[in-house]
Amino acid sequence: MSTDITVPQLPESVADATVASWTKGPGDPVQRDEVLVELETDKVMLEVPAPADGVLEEILHNEGATVTAETVLGRVGAGSAAGAAETQGQSENNVGADVSETAPRSASESAQENGAQAESGDAAPKMGPAARKLVEEHRLDPTAIAGSGKDGRVTKEDVLKHIEGASAPPATEPEAPAQAPAREPTQKQEPGAPKQASSPATMADRAGVAYGAGDRPEKRVPMTRLRARVAERLLQATQQTAMLTTFNEVDMKPAMDLRGRYKEQFEQTHGVRLGFMSFFVAAATAALKRFPDINASIDGNDVVYHGYCDVGIAVASERGLVVPILRDAETLSLADIERQIRDFGDRAPEGRIGIEEMTGGTFTLTNGGVFGSLVSTPILNPPQSAILGMHKIQDRPVAIDGEVAVRPMMYLALSYDHRIVDGKDAVQFLVEIKNLVEDPARLLLDL
């Protein structure tokens, strides 16, 4: 008797999903609630567990297929690893070519691998589609890779570090070689000339993708659903808003001194590190209460004023930018803000931030400084009317009480929709944030 593997109910506003990866092949034994399929939507990754113990009999929708709610993805039949070989022949025709262009495993190989793991007591670790693709391309043993994600989940960065570590010393029994990178032409380096950029082959290795051979290699890869959605919304923001940006700078020394004085006690008391993002979230919510237009949005011919501050925090992940929301941020303590931001940062690389956690939002913060950005112009996150961009903290000479002093300075950028926010209010809003961060005591005293 077979049990169907079906697509779960998709979140509201999500019409369909794409099959990102299968963790098992036909003939492989599975356990109930073990993740079998990962589905990619416009915003999040969904994991589909095995409905019962048994053997994966067949796959009806391969990687890349578009599916809707209640679609039957495959079937699990009664059996165990011993019956894997019998089901392989029945299901082999249903398996499409692997997107990583490696040979698919046979049922006997799968059974042997699973049997070996069972004997050694090592179970294959959880990993996302990007990490799994790298493991398959380089024919690595997933149990030999240390996972840094939650519950030991292996991320793409973990696999890349493992590859780099394995390639440093010569191995006694090398893995099957990956596709050889394209040969780089030798060029004479002129004295004083800038260092040459990495060749496409080098960049391919770093990104975990294989390019074709030749002096000018290329590879065409379909845009992920999340990347396509981000592109659509960014284009919408530039075309349907009157976006302007105002800049200022903030002296971070007072906040840095306060953090340095209390960071150990803060971490011991609250169980989380004290960062600078919480200062800016607290300053932004205080400023939003004083400038309600910046916490408002346009809905048709109406302006909607929000009596709460749902602050979006832009978080980078392997799949692209996601913006989870700090609900009622104006009511949160610095410790609460840091805990939630830490949680978002842990779950984003694994695609485990739910769609409901990214829905809504009245204002957004993005910190390009963690990547080294000195100054940039952030793009609005519609229908919000403003977004604050934070940047790298850099020592610069500034005038303090008529004298030149070197201080840790950060440029701030506020992009806003001029249809609803006047330039005067945008400038004063940014100055208010600057003043609050430069005098953190005002945040505690609500001044």
Task: Spell out the blueprint of helices and strands.
Elements: E1 2-6, E2 17-22, E3 29-30, E4 35-40, E5 45-49, E6 54-59, E7 66-67, E8 72-77, H1 84-91, H2 107-120, H3 129-137, H4 156-167, H5 200-207, H6 225-240, E9 243-251, H7 253-270, H8 277-290, E10 296-299, E11 302-305, E12 311-313, E13 315-317, E14 320-322, E15 325-326, H9 334-347, E16 363-367, E17 386-390, E18 394-400, E19 403-417, H10 423-438, H11 441-445
Parallel strand pairs: 12-16, 16-17
Antiparallel strand pairs: 1-8, 2-4, 2-7, 3-6, 4-5, 6-8, 9-19, 10-11, 12-15, 13-14, 17-19, 18-19
Helix pairs in contact: 1-2, 3-4, 8-9, 8-10
Describe what is shown at a glance.
This protein is an alpha+beta fold and 447 residues long. The chain is built from eleven helices and 19 strands.
List descriptors.
single chain, 447 residues, alpha+beta, seven-stranded mixed sheet, four-stranded antiparallel sheet, 11 helices
Description:
The chain has helices at 84-91, 107-120, 129-137, 156-167, 200-207, 225-240, 253-270, 277-290, 334-347, 423-438, 441-445; strands at residues 2-6, 17-22, 29-30, 35-40, 45-49, 54-59, 66-67, 72-77, 243-251, 296-299, 302-305, 311-313, 315-317, 320-322, 325-326, 363-367, 386-390, 394-400, 403-417. With 447 residues, it is α+β, with helices and mostly antiparallel strands. It is globular. Mean pLDDT is 77; it is low at 81-121 and 168-207.
Strand content: 15-25%
Written as H for each helix and E for each strand, in order along the chain, the element string is EEEEEEEEHHHHHHEHHEEEEEEHEEEEHH
What do the pLDDT scores average to? Answer: 77
**Portion of residues within helices:** 25-40%
Total helical segments = 11
Tell me the total number of β-strands.
19
What structural class results from the helix and strand content? alpha+beta
Low-confidence stretches: 81-121, 168-207
Gap between N and C termini, in Å? Answer: 69 Å
Q: Strand count, sense and closure of the main sheet?
A: 7 strands, mixed
- Which value, in Å, is the CA radius of gyration? 26 Å
Net shape:
globular
